[in-house]
Structure formats: structure tokens, C-alpha cells
Amino acid sequence: MNISTLEKLHYNKIKEIIKSYCVSGLGRELIDKLQPSNNIKQVKRMLEETSEGRNLIDASYHMPLKGIFNIAPLIDKIEKGSVLEPSELTTIDNFLRGCRKVKIFIEDKEGYAPTLSAYGKSITELKYIEEEIETSIKGSIVDSNASKELKRIRRHIESCEEKIKERLDKFIRSSANKEYIQEFFISQRNGRYTIPIKASYKNQVQGSIVEVSSKGTTVFIEPSSVSKYTTELTTLKSEETMEEYRILATLTDMIFERIKELKINIEVIAEYDMIIAKAKYSKDIDG
Fold first, then answer.
1. Residue 92's CB: how many other CB atoms inside 10 A?
2. 109: in domain
3. Whether residue 173 is found in the same domain as residue 263
4. What average pLDDT does this structure show over 28-43?
5. Number of structural domains, the chain?
6. Which of 82, 191, 249, 276 is most buried, most CB within 10 Å of its CB?
7. What CATH number does residue 156 fall under?
8. CA atoms of 206 and 177, how far apart (whole Å)
């Protein structure tokens, strides 16, 4: 079919309207690729899919597609050898949960949508990966419960930070230091715990100058009384970073092992999103 005919039929305009009914980028991308077909078998199949989608909608059944995001870019990232960030793993988790819900939803709808119900059998549930991610990731961070080692390291970090704060509090409370202090609070600068000292007294306080205020009137000094703990804290933070990376890499490897099934899941969810979008449009125009 030539471009002129498509324009007369408002083909692309209708595609844009149908895309607005999609709940994810997956369906929208599939609609973008849609082209007219003279393959009767394919046309009949697509019409049947839309009819079955209408059957579900007319029976007040709503496929739980909302909140399922396109994870194809994350799959590409994994295939290139990258390790996923916590927030990206959460996106994978949400996708897997969404796939599981869709599979459960459609498996008993054979009476309304036999073809769509059959498609659901291609979805692979990966609940064990969901559980591993949910145990290891909370929000955008690696949870302490992800491993015994991470829990141990973070416990030591907390203890070390408490020792630093105790000594800095003692420094602030000491009457001998009162004259030197610009402001009576502990300030974190460049990842180190410091005390704001008047610049004119910087040589009266034993420690390392971490930062100087923009006006030069205040120097942020890490007193020598906490330097030992600062060194220990730096080592612990490095250990924490390495353990977090190990956990993220392990989770990413688990996903990589099932990447074939994930790609099929993406395809099925995309098809469902497109089909239901067409069915919604059909209902709205009383087609």
C-alpha cells in the first residue's frame, strides 16, 4: 500500500491514537512498527486478537499491565557486560512481578480469549529472582540483609562513626576549645567528620584541614584525636563498596542466565499491551 493511500486512510494518525491507549513503551514501540498486510492469515489472526481483547474488556476484565516498564535497555546493558544498579534491579523486579500477574490473570480466561490465553503460556515466572532482588535491594540501595558480610561491615562502620562523633562531641564540649570553635556542630566535608574552626586559630588545633569556607574565615578541621578512626572508616567504606558490587554482580548474573526467557516475556507483554490498546480503541469507537 503506497504512502498516499495510507495518508487518505489516516493510518498513522490512527496509530498515534491507539498508542495513547498503551500502558507501556513496549506496546507503543510495537504499534510504531505496524504496517498494512496483505497476508490474509495474519490479518485474521490480528482481528481475532483484538476481538478477544474486546471480550475481556466487555466482561470487565482488566489485564494488569499498568506499571510494567520496558526493560529491553537493561537487557542490552547486561549483554554488554555491565552490572545493574539497585534502581535498575528494582525495575527488573517490577517487570517480573508484572509478568507473573499477567500470566495468572490470563490463564483462566480461555472461554473469553483462547488465543490470548495461549500466549500467556509463553511467559516464564522467575519468582526466585524477584525474591533475591527484594531481599537484597531496598529502594535505591543494597540492603544490609543482602549478605552476612555486608551486615558485618556496616555494623563496624556504624560503630566507627559513633566513636568519631563521641570524640568530636567531647572536643566541642571542652572549655579549652571554646575560643577556637566558629560554630558548635559536627560538619561532614568530603566524606570526613570535621569541626568549623575560626581561621585565626587554625594552628591551635591539632588535626587536618579538610576544607576552607568561601570567605576564608572558617576552616573545617578533622582533629587528630579521630584520625585513627577516620583511616579505619575509609577502609570499611571501601570494603562496603566492594561487597555491594559483588552482590549487584551476583544478581545481574542471575538475570543474565535467564535472559532468553526474559526476552520472550518482553515480547509477550508488548503484544498484550498492543492488543488491549487496539481493543480499547475498538470499544471507544464502537468498532
1. 25
2. yes
3. no
4. 88
5. 2
6. 276
7. 1.10.1420
8. 11
Lowest mean pLDDT among 93-102, 222-231, 278-287: 278-287
Grid coordinates standing for 67?
506499571
Separation of first and last alpha carbons in the chain: 23
Domain that holds residue 39: 3-126+259-284
Note whether residue 140 is domain-resident: no
225 is a domain residue: yes
Q: Which of 7-16, 106-115, 252-261, 265-274 has the lowest mean pLDDT?
A: 7-16
Is 189 in a helix, a strand, or coil?
strand
Convert the pLDDT of each residue in 78-92 to its tens digit.
Answer: 999 999 999 999 999
Q: What 3-state DSSP class applies to 14? A: helix
DSSP notation for 87-139: HHHHHHHHHHHHHHHHHHHHTT-TTT-HHHHHHHTTPPP-HHHHHHHHHHEET
The pairs formed by 1-10 with CB atoms below 8 angstroms and a separation of 24 or more are 1/36, 6/36
